[in-house]
Inverse folding.
């Protein structure tokens, strides 16, 4: 009797241990990170910096694949054709909301499992030189009466949506001017062709140096590159969304695999060379996992989706 | 002065020199493979620089930048396949020279013109960066629009034979440039639900298809079965830098390098336009414009001195303003940033020795590029001895690797093959492929800036005509177009008289 029980228990344990073992030794093969943008861009450089420390934490190879095109649409669509086993992941950011909102892709936000947020950077309202303004207050006073031109990186991009959100919150009249990328928009503001831009700190930090440079007047969040710039919320304006980068996989990943990812990422972000790279890139290390992360993604979706849909309908 | 000595101290380190040499070598190799552009060469090397000191990593990336732009000329001359977008114009006269048995001479001309262009570009970068950057910033929507229109006139210059056919090919390029999301409203145009087309037709698959795949197809059709090489014997004794020829062409070099530096310095204009503009200008200045396109060294000099000067020009806004001039410098700037070196005005104040180190490394990279290529000419020319039945499959393989390697998209491979078929028929019926590429590049520049201008100027289109730079460029465009049409009419009348 005792023997039978042990045998049954052993079999039961064995059955339970089978799939569990497969998840517990995750990863035992190469992990692929799909970067939905070209090699050498901001996202790519960030992932290349993470690659080494992550390999150490996982004890396996980590491969980085660039699948660019359509402002991220091609790479993200391609990611979803993979099994939800945690071996193929991609880099989520605010473009997830804007691609869905513009109707440019045929996936939904919950087609992905969000595993982590690793870094963030705010959006900064940065203005060209003018006698009409010197700070946020004087700019708002002016722009309530006279329409101003604000540039950003691409129609339907997250910087476009944030320009809308900022114009809304400030109650000013804005002509929205899409550029091909952040550097083109910055150059246009430097040349006085537009009144200002809404971009990341790393896009504008060099342009605020020197004579006739731009002035960052308000930011949606703290930035180590622009420590002295006031936040919108300091002036009672409620715009707080940050750009972010993290890890996401096709939906349906086992909890044990997600746990393994979290453990590895928590170890990788401690790496000194990674932290140095994050510092050099001018983004903030702000890891977030689990329920807090899900809430963060939900908040982003609540802000970006309706605004993007309003742009798409025009 | 002490800053310059400090900079010399940074560079005069065997590890730094090896990094510059290695970067230049890899750049040359990647530039000469169709599909791998300068931007890609730099991007591939960035992870390698992670463990290096700043000036060592920067030297390697700058070497790759110079090498890739110069290396693009090799397949352009030998095989009629531009290795990078900026060597499209190099095919126009380089390949006919190779066909005449002057491949060695063509390479010698191209390599030394590249070197001179690169060095003059570097000198202008060192001496005149701030005023050039200030001029470049004057380019707003109206000026970009005018630049685009001015560029479209060049189609008349680069269409071999019939201008009407050239214009048809150019219009085709313009039409293809409308594919993708509308630059102002974001509405989808002709994308057919294909995510890869949202941001428009990528230049690379179009370029590789039109020039490389079409060339392979032509070869297959031309020699179905019989492998009879009917090429002129190659004259190898001429594979030396023809300094005398270059000295006589000083006016071409002067105008091409100035155009290269200025167009390179304008953020958003795109480096590949400069070689077209220089080629066009050289043809206009020439006493023998009819020789252009038939294997005329001046055309080759214009294209190659200009595209290498563009590299120096593109570094100007990056170093002085922190705004990259075009794609390759954008990637380069990312590479510098991750090294902890943030280009911009503050870099001059705080780490001037790094800036001067960049200047020196850039000049050294140009020297390395010259020496390596001169040593390699005899090796490069051997490509022509490879039987086409082996060479053509190899070219096709590199095309596929190149296009797939950049964006990792299968759709773009199909796009490449479609453009290959298109290019094959365009060449067969005398339309040419260079105007299509020019239309594709200029179409989006012209359209997005016209539309952007209408937003910024609040619907006042007269701004496009009233702003000084814009008015000058548009005026020149009309003048040159009139000149071309007049010349055509005169030619036709003369032909009539001759036949009568």
């Amino acid at each position: 009797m005792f023997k039978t029980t042990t045998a049954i228990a052993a079999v039961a344990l064995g059955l339970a241990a089978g799939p569990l073992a497969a998840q517990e030794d995750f990863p035992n093969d190469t992990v692929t990170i799909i970067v939905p943008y070209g090699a050498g861009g901001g996202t790519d450089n960030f992932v290349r910096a993470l690659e080494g420390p992550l390999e150490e934490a996982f004890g396996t190879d980590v491969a980085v694949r660039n699948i660019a095109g359509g402002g991220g649409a091609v790479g993200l669509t391609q990611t979803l054709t993979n099994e939800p086993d945690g071996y193929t992941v991609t880099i989520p950011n605010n473009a997830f909301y804007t691609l869905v909102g513009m109707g440019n892709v045929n996936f939904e936000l919950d087609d992905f499992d969000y595993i982590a947020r690793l870094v963030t950077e705010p959006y900064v309202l940065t203005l060209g030189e003018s006698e009409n303004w010197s700070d946020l207050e004087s700019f708002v006073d002016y722009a309530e009466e006279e329409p101003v031109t604000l540039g950003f990186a691409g129609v339907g991009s997250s910087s476009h949506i944030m320009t809308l959100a900022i114009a809304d919150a400030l109650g000013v009249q804005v002509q929205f001017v899409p550029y091909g990328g952040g550097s083109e928009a910055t150059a246009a503001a430097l040349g006085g062709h537009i009144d200002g831009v809404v971009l990341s700190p790393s896009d504008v930090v060099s342009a605020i140096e020197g004579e006739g440079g731009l002035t960052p007047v308000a930011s949606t969040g703290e930035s180590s590159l622009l420590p002295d710039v006031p936040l919108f919320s300091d002036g009672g304006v409620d715009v707080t969304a940050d750009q972010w980068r993290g890890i996401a996989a096709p939906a349906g990943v086992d909890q044990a695999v997600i746990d393994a990812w979290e453990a590895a990422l928590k170890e990788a972000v401690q790496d000194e060379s990674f932290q140095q790279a994050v510092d050099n890139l001018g983004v903030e290390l702000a890891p977030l996992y689990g329920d807090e992360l899900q809430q963060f993604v939900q908040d982003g979706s609540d802000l970006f989706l309706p605004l993007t849909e309003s742009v798409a309908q025009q | 002065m002490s800053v310059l000595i400090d900079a010399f101290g940074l560079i005069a380190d065997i590890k730094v020199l090896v990094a510059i040499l290695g970067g230049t070598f890899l750049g040359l190799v990647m530039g000469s493979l169709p599909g791998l552009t300068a931007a890609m060469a730099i991007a591939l090397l960035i992870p390698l620089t992670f463990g290096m000191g700043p000036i060592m990593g920067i030297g390697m990336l700058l070497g790759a930048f110079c090498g890739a732009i110069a290396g693009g000329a090799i397949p352009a001359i030998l095989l009629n396949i531009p290795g990078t977008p900026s060597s499209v114009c190099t095919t126009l006269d380089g390949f006919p020279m190779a066909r005449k048995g002057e491949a060695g001479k063509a390479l010698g001309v191209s390599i030394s013109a590249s070197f001179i262009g690169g060095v003059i570009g570097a000198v202008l970068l060192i001496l005149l960066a701030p005023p050039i950057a200030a001029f470049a910033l004057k380019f707003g929507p109206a000026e970009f629009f005018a630049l685009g229109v001015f560029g479209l006139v060049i189609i008349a210059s680069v269409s071999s034979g019939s201008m009407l056919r050239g214009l048809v090919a150019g219009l085709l390029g313009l039409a293809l440039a409308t594919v993708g999301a509308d630059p102002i409203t974001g509405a989808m145009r002709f994308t057919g639900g294909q995510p890869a087309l949202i941001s428009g037709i990528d230049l690379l698959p179009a370029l590789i298809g039109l020039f490389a795949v079409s060339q392979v197809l032509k070869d297959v059709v031309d020699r179905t079965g019989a492998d009879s090489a009917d090429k002129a014997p190659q004259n190898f004794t001429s594979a030396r830098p023809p300094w005398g020829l270059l000295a006589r062409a000083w006016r071409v070099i002067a105008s091409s390098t100035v155009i290269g530096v200025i167009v390179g310095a304008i953020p958003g204009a795109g480096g590949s336009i400069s070689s077209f503009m220089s080629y066009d200008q050289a043809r206009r200045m020439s006493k023998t414009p009819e020789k252009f396109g038939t294997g005329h060294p001046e055309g080759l000099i214009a294209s190659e001195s200009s595209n290498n000067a563009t590299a120096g020009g593109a570094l100007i806004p990056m170093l002085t303003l922190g705004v990259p001039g075009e794609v390759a410098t954008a990637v380069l700037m990312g590479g510098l940033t991750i090294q902890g070196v943030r280009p911009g005005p503050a870099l001059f104040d705080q780490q001037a020795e790094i800036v001067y180190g960049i200047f020196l490394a850039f000049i050294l990279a140009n020297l390395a590029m010259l020496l390596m290529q001169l040593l390699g000419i005899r090796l490069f020319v051997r490509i022509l001895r490879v039987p086409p039945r082996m060479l053509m499959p190899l070219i096709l393989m590199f095309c596929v690797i190149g296009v797939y390697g950049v964006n990792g998209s299968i759709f773009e491979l199909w796009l490449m093959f479609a453009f290959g078929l298109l290019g094959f028929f365009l060449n067969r019926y005398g339309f040419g492929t260079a105007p299509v590429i020019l239309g594709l590049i200029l179409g989006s520049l012209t359209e997005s800036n016209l539309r952007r201008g209408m937003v910024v100027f609040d619907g006042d289109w007269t701004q496009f005509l009233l702003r000084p730079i814009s008015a000058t460029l548009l005026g020149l465009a009309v003048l040159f177009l009139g000149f071309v049409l007049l010349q055509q009419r005169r030619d036709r009348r003369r032909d009539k008289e001759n036949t009568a």
